[in-house]
Amino acid sequence: MTKPVITVIGSINMDMVTEAERAPDQGETLMGTAFQMIPGGKGANQAVAAARLGARVSMIGAVGDDPFADVLTENLKREGVATAGVKRVSGVSSGVASIVLSEQDNRILVVPGANGRVDRALVDEEAERILASDLVIMQLEIPLDTVIYAAKLCKDNNIPVLLNPAPAHVLPDELLETCTWLTPNEMERKAMGDLPQAVLQKLIVTEGKAGACFFRNGMEKKVAGHTVDVVDTTGAGDTFNGALAVELAKGRTAEEAIRFANAAAALSVTKLGAQTGMPTEAQVTRFLST
Ligand code: RIB
Question: For ATP, which residues are the binding ones (predicted)?
Protein backbone atom coordinates (compact mmCIF):
# COMPACT_ATOMS: atom_id res chain seq x y z
CA MET A 1 0.00 0.00 0.00
CA THR A 2 1.34 3.48 -0.85
CA LYS A 3 2.05 5.66 2.15
CA PRO A 4 -0.72 8.13 3.04
CA VAL A 5 0.34 11.76 2.60
CA ILE A 6 -0.47 13.86 5.67
CA THR A 7 0.13 17.55 6.32
CA VAL A 8 -0.01 18.95 9.84
CA ILE A 9 -0.65 22.68 10.24
CA GLY A 10 0.05 23.33 13.91
CA SER A 11 2.21 24.13 16.89
CA ILE A 12 5.81 23.25 17.66
CA ASN A 13 6.87 23.61 21.32
CA MET A 14 9.75 22.83 23.61
CA ASP A 15 8.25 21.03 26.62
CA MET A 16 9.84 21.92 29.99
CA VAL A 17 8.93 18.84 31.96
CA THR A 18 9.29 19.11 35.74
CA GLU A 19 8.47 16.09 37.84
CA ALA A 20 7.25 16.40 41.43
CA GLU A 21 5.41 14.28 43.96
CA ARG A 22 2.45 16.64 43.57
CA ALA A 23 1.67 19.96 41.88
CA PRO A 24 2.40 22.99 44.12
CA ASP A 25 -0.55 24.75 45.77
CA GLN A 26 -1.24 28.43 45.20
CA GLY A 27 1.60 30.54 46.65
CA GLU A 28 3.62 27.44 47.52
CA THR A 29 7.20 26.64 46.48
CA LEU A 30 7.83 22.94 46.22
CA MET A 31 11.01 20.96 45.48
CA GLY A 32 10.66 18.89 42.31
CA THR A 33 12.39 15.60 41.55
CA ALA A 34 13.53 15.88 37.88
CA PHE A 35 13.65 18.20 34.88
CA GLN A 36 13.93 17.56 31.14
CA MET A 37 13.44 19.56 27.94
CA ILE A 38 11.62 17.41 25.39
CA PRO A 39 10.32 18.47 21.94
CA GLY A 40 6.52 18.73 21.92
CA GLY A 41 3.62 20.86 20.76
CA LYS A 42 0.36 19.30 19.65
CA GLY A 43 1.12 19.87 15.97
CA ALA A 44 4.65 18.48 16.05
CA ASN A 45 3.57 15.57 18.26
CA GLN A 46 0.82 14.56 15.85
CA ALA A 47 3.23 14.88 12.92
CA VAL A 48 5.76 12.59 14.65
CA ALA A 49 3.04 10.08 15.58
CA ALA A 50 1.83 9.88 11.97
CA ALA A 51 5.40 9.59 10.61
CA ARG A 52 6.30 6.74 13.00
CA LEU A 53 3.15 4.97 11.85
CA GLY A 54 4.28 5.04 8.25
CA ALA A 55 2.75 8.20 6.70
CA ARG A 56 4.63 10.72 4.54
CA VAL A 57 4.26 13.78 6.74
CA SER A 58 4.89 17.50 6.19
CA MET A 59 4.78 20.05 8.99
CA ILE A 60 3.58 23.62 8.46
CA GLY A 61 4.33 25.81 11.45
CA ALA A 62 6.78 28.28 12.93
CA VAL A 63 9.72 28.46 15.33
CA GLY A 64 11.32 31.57 16.83
CA ASP A 65 14.85 32.95 16.74
CA ASP A 66 16.03 31.29 19.96
CA PRO A 67 18.26 28.21 20.48
CA PHE A 68 15.15 25.97 20.60
CA ALA A 69 14.37 26.67 16.95
CA ASP A 70 17.10 24.41 15.55
CA VAL A 71 16.57 21.68 18.13
CA LEU A 72 12.83 21.54 17.35
CA THR A 73 13.31 21.58 13.58
CA GLU A 74 16.10 18.97 13.68
CA ASN A 75 13.95 16.75 15.87
CA LEU A 76 11.17 16.77 13.26
CA LYS A 77 13.65 16.00 10.47
CA ARG A 78 15.12 13.11 12.44
CA GLU A 79 11.60 11.70 12.74
CA GLY A 80 11.21 11.84 8.96
CA VAL A 81 8.85 14.83 8.95
CA ALA A 82 9.41 17.30 6.06
CA THR A 83 10.09 20.77 7.47
CA ALA A 84 10.18 23.01 4.38
CA GLY A 85 6.89 24.51 5.63
CA VAL A 86 8.34 25.43 9.03
CA LYS A 87 9.24 29.12 9.00
CA ARG A 88 11.64 30.88 11.34
CA VAL A 89 10.26 34.10 12.83
CA SER A 90 12.62 36.73 14.23
CA GLY A 91 11.92 38.75 17.36
CA VAL A 92 9.85 36.04 19.01
CA SER A 93 10.56 32.89 21.06
CA SER A 94 9.70 29.40 19.94
CA GLY A 95 6.61 27.95 21.61
CA VAL A 96 7.21 26.53 25.07
CA ALA A 97 5.09 24.39 27.35
CA SER A 98 5.69 24.28 31.08
CA ILE A 99 4.59 20.84 32.22
CA VAL A 100 4.27 19.78 35.86
CA LEU A 101 4.08 16.03 36.04
CA SER A 102 3.05 14.29 39.23
CA GLU A 103 1.60 10.92 40.08
CA GLN A 104 -1.93 12.28 40.17
CA ASP A 105 -1.98 14.32 36.98
CA ASN A 106 -0.16 16.55 34.54
CA ARG A 107 -0.65 20.32 34.18
CA ILE A 108 0.43 22.22 31.08
CA LEU A 109 0.88 25.96 30.50
CA VAL A 110 1.67 26.88 26.88
CA VAL A 111 3.26 30.12 25.69
CA PRO A 112 2.65 30.10 21.91
CA GLY A 113 5.52 32.39 20.81
CA ALA A 114 6.15 31.77 17.10
CA ASN A 115 3.10 29.49 16.87
CA GLY A 116 1.07 32.70 17.04
CA ARG A 117 2.64 33.73 13.70
CA VAL A 118 1.29 30.77 11.75
CA ASP A 119 -0.95 32.92 9.57
CA ARG A 120 -2.99 32.97 6.37
CA ALA A 121 0.10 34.04 4.40
CA LEU A 122 1.93 30.85 5.42
CA VAL A 123 -1.09 28.77 4.40
CA ASP A 124 -1.07 30.51 1.00
CA GLU A 125 2.68 29.91 0.61
CA GLU A 126 2.22 26.23 1.40
CA ALA A 127 -1.06 25.75 -0.50
CA GLU A 128 0.46 23.38 -3.05
CA ARG A 129 1.76 21.07 -0.31
CA ILE A 130 -1.56 21.25 1.55
CA LEU A 131 -3.58 20.40 -1.53
CA ALA A 132 -1.35 17.43 -2.36
CA SER A 133 -2.32 15.78 0.95
CA ASP A 134 -4.60 12.82 1.53
CA LEU A 135 -5.56 14.42 4.83
CA VAL A 136 -4.72 17.59 6.80
CA ILE A 137 -4.49 17.66 10.61
CA MET A 138 -4.88 20.82 12.71
CA GLN A 139 -5.25 21.73 16.38
CA LEU A 140 -5.91 25.00 18.22
CA GLU A 141 -2.43 26.07 19.40
CA ILE A 142 -2.12 28.32 16.32
CA PRO A 143 -4.46 31.29 15.61
CA LEU A 144 -8.09 30.24 15.11
CA ASP A 145 -8.29 32.52 12.07
CA THR A 146 -5.58 30.44 10.36
CA VAL A 147 -7.35 27.18 11.20
CA ILE A 148 -10.63 28.49 9.74
CA TYR A 149 -8.84 29.74 6.62
CA ALA A 150 -6.93 26.50 6.01
CA ALA A 151 -10.02 24.35 6.66
CA LYS A 152 -11.95 26.32 4.03
CA LEU A 153 -9.12 25.94 1.52
CA CYS A 154 -9.18 22.18 2.11
CA LYS A 155 -12.97 21.93 1.93
CA ASP A 156 -13.01 23.86 -1.37
CA ASN A 157 -10.51 21.36 -2.77
CA ASN A 158 -11.99 18.16 -1.29
CA ILE A 159 -9.09 17.52 1.09
CA PRO A 160 -10.33 15.92 4.34
CA VAL A 161 -9.49 17.81 7.55
CA LEU A 162 -9.11 16.27 10.98
CA LEU A 163 -9.38 19.00 13.61
CA ASN A 164 -8.26 18.15 17.12
CA PRO A 165 -9.98 21.04 18.97
CA ALA A 166 -7.35 21.32 21.69
CA PRO A 167 -6.95 23.35 23.86
CA ALA A 168 -10.70 23.68 24.50
CA HIS A 169 -12.46 26.39 22.52
CA VAL A 170 -15.94 27.30 21.35
CA LEU A 171 -15.79 26.71 17.59
CA PRO A 172 -17.55 28.89 15.00
CA ASP A 173 -20.18 27.13 12.85
CA GLU A 174 -18.10 27.83 9.76
CA LEU A 175 -15.28 25.65 11.13
CA LEU A 176 -17.61 22.89 12.35
CA GLU A 177 -18.98 22.72 8.81
CA THR A 178 -15.67 22.68 6.93
CA CYS A 179 -13.90 19.99 9.02
CA THR A 180 -14.35 16.33 8.16
CA TRP A 181 -13.46 14.94 11.61
CA LEU A 182 -13.49 16.58 15.08
CA THR A 183 -11.61 14.82 17.87
CA PRO A 184 -12.13 16.53 21.24
CA ASN A 185 -11.45 14.89 24.59
CA GLU A 186 -14.34 14.94 27.06
CA MET A 187 -13.45 18.40 28.45
CA GLU A 188 -13.05 19.90 24.96
CA ARG A 189 -16.34 18.28 23.89
CA LYS A 190 -18.13 20.14 26.73
CA ALA A 191 -16.63 23.45 25.53
CA MET A 192 -18.17 22.81 22.09
CA GLY A 193 -21.72 22.91 23.52
CA ASP A 194 -24.78 21.55 21.70
CA LEU A 195 -24.06 20.36 18.18
CA PRO A 196 -26.41 19.62 15.28
CA GLN A 197 -26.76 16.05 14.03
CA ALA A 198 -24.62 16.74 10.94
CA VAL A 199 -21.69 17.79 13.16
CA LEU A 200 -22.19 14.91 15.65
CA GLN A 201 -21.45 12.50 12.78
CA LYS A 202 -17.94 14.03 12.57
CA LEU A 203 -17.18 13.64 16.28
CA ILE A 204 -14.72 11.17 17.77
CA VAL A 205 -14.52 11.84 21.50
CA THR A 206 -11.48 10.49 23.33
CA GLU A 207 -12.01 9.18 26.87
CA GLY A 208 -8.50 8.29 28.07
CA LYS A 209 -7.99 4.64 28.95
CA ALA A 210 -11.73 4.01 28.44
CA GLY A 211 -11.14 4.46 24.70
CA ALA A 212 -13.17 6.69 22.39
CA CYS A 213 -16.69 7.02 21.03
CA PHE A 214 -18.24 8.13 17.78
CA PHE A 215 -21.78 8.65 16.57
CA ARG A 216 -23.75 6.97 13.79
CA ASN A 217 -27.42 7.65 13.02
CA GLY A 218 -27.93 9.35 16.38
CA MET A 219 -26.40 6.42 18.30
CA GLU A 220 -23.19 6.61 20.34
CA LYS A 221 -20.72 3.78 19.61
CA LYS A 222 -17.84 3.03 21.98
CA VAL A 223 -14.49 1.53 21.04
CA ALA A 224 -12.80 0.27 24.22
CA GLY A 225 -9.30 1.38 25.22
CA HIS A 226 -6.51 -0.47 27.03
CA THR A 227 -5.15 -0.56 30.56
CA VAL A 228 -1.36 -0.22 30.68
CA ASP A 229 1.28 0.90 33.20
CA VAL A 230 1.18 4.70 32.88
CA VAL A 231 4.38 6.76 33.11
CA ASP A 232 3.24 9.99 31.41
CA THR A 233 -0.04 10.73 29.64
CA THR A 234 1.35 13.86 27.89
CA GLY A 235 0.90 13.38 24.16
CA ALA A 236 -1.51 10.43 24.42
CA GLY A 237 -4.18 12.46 22.63
CA ASP A 238 -1.64 13.51 20.01
CA THR A 239 -0.64 9.90 19.39
CA PHE A 240 -4.32 9.02 19.07
CA ASN A 241 -4.86 11.80 16.51
CA GLY A 242 -1.75 10.99 14.47
CA ALA A 243 -2.70 7.32 14.36
CA LEU A 244 -6.34 8.03 13.60
CA ALA A 245 -5.32 10.32 10.72
CA VAL A 246 -3.05 7.69 9.18
CA GLU A 247 -5.76 5.04 9.30
CA LEU A 248 -8.52 7.33 8.00
CA ALA A 249 -6.23 8.46 5.17
CA LYS A 250 -5.79 4.79 4.27
CA GLY A 251 -9.57 4.52 3.90
CA ARG A 252 -10.26 2.60 7.13
CA THR A 253 -13.70 3.04 8.76
CA ALA A 254 -13.98 5.26 11.84
CA GLU A 255 -14.33 2.19 14.05
CA GLU A 256 -11.25 0.46 12.59
CA ALA A 257 -9.21 3.67 12.80
CA ILE A 258 -10.23 4.28 16.43
CA ARG A 259 -9.31 0.71 17.42
CA PHE A 260 -5.80 1.22 15.99
CA ALA A 261 -5.49 4.73 17.50
CA ASN A 262 -6.55 3.50 20.97
CA ALA A 263 -3.73 0.95 20.88
CA ALA A 264 -1.17 3.52 19.71
CA ALA A 265 -2.23 5.94 22.48
CA ALA A 266 -2.00 3.18 25.12
CA LEU A 267 1.58 2.37 24.06
CA SER A 268 2.54 6.06 24.12
CA VAL A 269 1.79 6.58 27.82
CA THR A 270 4.28 3.95 28.96
CA LYS A 271 7.25 6.36 28.52
CA LEU A 272 8.08 9.89 29.75
CA GLY A 273 7.56 12.71 27.22
CA ALA A 274 4.99 13.33 24.53
CA GLN A 275 6.93 11.87 21.60
CA THR A 276 9.21 9.37 23.34
CA GLY A 277 6.72 6.53 23.60
CA MET A 278 4.98 7.00 20.25
CA PRO A 279 4.90 3.56 18.60
CA THR A 280 5.65 2.29 15.09
CA GLU A 281 3.02 0.51 13.02
CA ALA A 282 4.64 -2.87 13.80
CA GLN A 283 4.48 -2.19 17.56
CA VAL A 284 0.78 -1.29 17.38
CA THR A 285 0.00 -4.37 15.29
CA ARG A 286 1.89 -6.57 17.76
CA PHE A 287 0.10 -4.96 20.74
CA LEU A 288 -3.30 -5.51 19.13
CA SER A 289 -2.53 -9.16 18.45
CA THR A 290 -1.58 -9.97 22.06
O1 RIB B 1 -0.63 17.51 23.86
C2 RIB B 1 0.58 17.62 24.55
C3 RIB B 1 1.28 18.88 24.16
O4 RIB B 1 0.52 19.98 24.59
C5 RIB B 1 2.64 19.06 24.79
O6 RIB B 1 3.69 18.49 24.03
C7 RIB B 1 2.76 20.56 24.94
O8 RIB B 1 3.71 21.14 24.11
C9 RIB B 1 1.36 21.09 24.66
O10 RIB B 1 1.30 21.72 23.45
Answer: 185, 206-211, 237-238, 262
Q: What backbone torsions phi and psi does residue 47 show, to the nearest 5 degrees? A: -65, -45
Distance 40 CA to ligand 1 centre (A): 5
Check pocket membership of 108 for ligand 1, CB cut-off 6 A: yes
- Give the rounded percent of residues in the chain with a pLDDT score beyond 70: 100
In terms of Cβ atoms closer than 10 Å to its own Cβ (0-12, 13-18, 19+), residue 28 is exposed
Domain ranges of the chain: 5-22+34-289
The CB-based long-range contact list for 226-231 (8 Å cut-off, 24+ gap) reads: 226/262, 226/263, 226/266, 226/287, 227/266, 228/266, 228/267, 228/269, 228/270, 229/270, 230/269, 230/270, 231/269, 231/270, 231/271, 231/272, 231/277
Question: pLDDT for 91-139, tens place per residue?
Answer: 999 999 999 999 878 899 999 999 999 999 999 999 999 999 999 999 9
| Burial state string for 108-125 with b = 16 or more CB within 10 A and e = fewer than 16 | bebebbbbbbbbeebbee
Residues pairing with 181 in the sheet: 162
Assigned superfamily of 5-22+34-289:
Ribokinase (3.40.1190.20)
Could you report the per-residue pLDDT of 232-254, keeping only the tens digit for each?
A: 999 999 999 999 999 999 999 99
Taking CA atoms only, the protein residue closest to ligand 1 atom 7 is 41
In the predicted model, what is the mean pLDDT of the chain? Answer: 96
Consult the annotation and say whether 14 binds a ligand: yes
pLDDT tens digits for 25-40?
999 999 999 999 999 9
